[in-house]
Amino acid sequence: MSLSTVAVGLALALDAALGEPPTRVHPVAWFGRLVAPLDRPWTRPRLAGALATVALPLVAALTVGGVVAAAGAWRPLAGAVAGGLALFLTTSLRRLLSVAREVTALTETDLDAARAELRALAGRDAAALSAGEVRSAVVESVSENLADGLVAPLGAFVVLAVVGALLPSAGALRPGLDPAVAAVALGAAGAAWVKAVNTMDSMLGYRSKPVGWAPARLDDAVMWAPARASAVLIAAASLSPGSVLAARRWLDRVPSPNSGWPMGTVAAALGVRLVKPGAYDIDADAPLPTADDAERAVRRVGLAGGLAYLGAGAVTYVGAGVFTWA
């Protein structure tokens, strides 16, 4: 088994067992503290944002990749463990599904509490939302965050880990470093870079913040493939291949160039309406999600996440073998 596959398996096991570390010790939260000072008036806000968008994710990637490479230089298995820990810290599935289930349950027992808890999933004013609209937000959030929180960093890890298997022939990275360790280090750096870009977008990427223009545009580009891959995974988990094509009908109703794919696929697979007041209305002729609909969406996104991990493990395993035989 390749070290990259070990790292993917470890990340899955840690997510299943632990969910996420507390915010106070989470490296992504630490990175957020580096980003926070950017949220202020600037003489040239777009330039400031662009420079930070280049520098900060690169710092995150080099730091994580360097730590994994250093651990692997000591012991290759230690590199795999460090890579798996990095991947675990840059991805999220269990916590997402857990919060979604909590909010869904509260919509039937305590709507005010459901509106309050929704803040952990969706950044919108929930004070006037009906129970169905809260559940709609839950379904939208779990589908969109499958792409942002799992598929994007996991995909970056896989692609760069496979590319890393080519490094010995290219004479790249660090002389004398085990090629399998180099692959894990490069994959971990890629996952950290994607997570950093997404974090900057989530903190700064609003129309009201000119400094967030560059993070938002870069995040749009980075998320192009993960959003569409997530739609395919959701369709597979729902046994509804046609739902991806159906989602195309509503793409022009969603401001984001990417989030409409997983959200529209879920809407089509479940036959429900997803609406963010004042922003978009997907499948407006269908009913808003019931609690059972929202639970089904959570289960299907969970299964789609499992398929993503399974695919990542298979690609890293086969990829390492192909380059070893070559």
Automatic annotation (TrEMBL):
<comment type="function">
    <text>Converts cobyric acid to cobinamide by the addition of aminopropanol on the F carboxylic group.</text>
</comment>
<dbReference type="GO" id="GO:0015420">
    <property type="term" value="F:ABC-type vitamin B12 transporter activity"/>
</dbReference>
<keyword id="KW-0472">Membrane</keyword>
<keyword id="KW-0812">Transmembrane</keyword>
<feature type="transmembrane region" description="Helical">
    <location>
        <begin position="77"/>
        <end position="97"/>
    </location>
</feature>
<comment type="similarity">
    <text>Belongs to the CobD/CbiB family.</text>
</comment>
<feature type="transmembrane region" description="Helical">
    <location>
        <begin position="47"/>
        <end position="70"/>
    </location>
</feature>
<keyword id="KW-1003">Cell membrane</keyword>
<keyword id="KW-0169">Cobalamin biosynthesis</keyword>
<dbReference type="InterPro" id="IPR004485">
    <property type="entry name" value="Cobalamin_biosynth_CobD/CbiB"/>
</dbReference>
<dbReference type="GO" id="GO:0009236">
    <property type="term" value="P:cobalamin biosynthetic process"/>
</dbReference>
<keyword id="KW-1133">Transmembrane helix</keyword>
<feature type="transmembrane region" description="Helical">
    <location>
        <begin position="227"/>
        <end position="247"/>
    </location>
</feature>
<comment type="pathway">
    <text>Cofactor biosynthesis; adenosylcobalamin biosynthesis.</text>
</comment>
<dbReference type="GO" id="GO:0005886">
    <property type="term" value="C:plasma membrane"/>
</dbReference>
<dbReference type="Pfam" id="PF03186">
    <property type="entry name" value="CobD_Cbib"/>
</dbReference>
<feature type="transmembrane region" description="Helical">
    <location>
        <begin position="150"/>
        <end position="168"/>
    </location>
</feature>
<feature type="transmembrane region" description="Helical">
    <location>
        <begin position="306"/>
        <end position="325"/>
    </location>
</feature>
<feature type="transmembrane region" description="Helical">
    <location>
        <begin position="180"/>
        <end position="197"/>
    </location>
</feature>
<protein>
    <recommendedName>
        <fullName>Probable cobalamin biosynthesis protein CobD</fullName>
    </recommendedName>
</protein>
<dbReference type="GO" id="GO:0048472">
    <property type="term" value="F:threonine-phosphate decarboxylase activity"/>
</dbReference>
